[in-house]
Specification:
Shape: globular
Distance between the termini: 31 Å
Number of helices: 13
Order of helices and strands: EEHHEEHHEEEEHHHHHHHHHE
Strand order of the largest sheet: 1-2-4-3-9
Strand content: 5-15%
Radius of gyration: 20 Å
Oligomer: single chain
Largest sheet: 5 strands, antiparallel
Amino acid sequence: GGGFGKVWRIRNRKNGDLLALKERSKIRVYRKNSVKSVVAENKLLQLLYHDFIVNMRYAFQDKENLYLAMPLLTGGDLRYHLIKHRTFEEEAAQFMIACIVHSLDYIHRCRVIHRDIKPENVIFDSKGYVHLTDFGIAKPWRTENHEDTSGTPGYMAPEVLCRKDHSFSADYFAVGVILYEFMHGKRPYVGRTRKEIKEAVMARQAVAKQSTVVGVWSDAALDFCNGLLQRKRYKRLGENGILEIRNHPWFAKFDWQGLDAKTLPAPFVPTGSDNFDKKNANRLESLIEPEEYLLLKNKEIQEMFQDYEFNRDLVKTPPVPDNT
């Protein structure tokens, strides 16, 4: 929601932590009609806290900008590595999918649907663990939510594409798309526009088969991927809860406790400092016009951001969702 301007590397003077500080122009947010989504994302990030998501540490503002401080993860995003490697081997894929599933387990227990699971929003730390980010269009779950249809078409579940009510399993469909990408080097449904992608989804059920995957994959991995990619919600793996996913044969021998404790070595670890797409690193936004600055003097616009401030250090205990 509302694209970030600059990102700074900063160090917390108290404890030496390295943080990424993201700066967003209030005028831009306002002009893009993103105030609601930016404030909603901020509220969600105040509530969520988990080792496998990119947590908000601090949020503050001045007259012109909003600032968001988060842990600095140096491994780059999954899209960058997918472009570089095209496919991943099964062991690495399983580890990354497990990380995403683990973060979704927490988010869903908090009754939130992420709704924008895609490689760009999956970030590596230096040890090869991946963390979920970008809660710009995440929403608390409601029974009637067919109007919440934004997302990235290539990863959107059919029920979202068709503007129907959807639940947590919409996120699992997107995980299936990512796994399919690991196996084939491309997404199961492609098109230049949302309409083309929707037509591709409606036309056929994508299936991962031994004859189409790149490299060596177990039958359990293919079955897992195909379970997530089910177009009909009621047939989809995970529609009846996370245990359907964790208990799938593909994860029969997987060490979930080692993953949670971060003692499990990651099969794929990003190397060096070549993990960022340099072309976007310092892309300066077009300059703000003088008359736009007058908007900053508008009391109503400033009040739209009134609940933005946050300090994680002052939060005694992060919320632990109930396990129901």
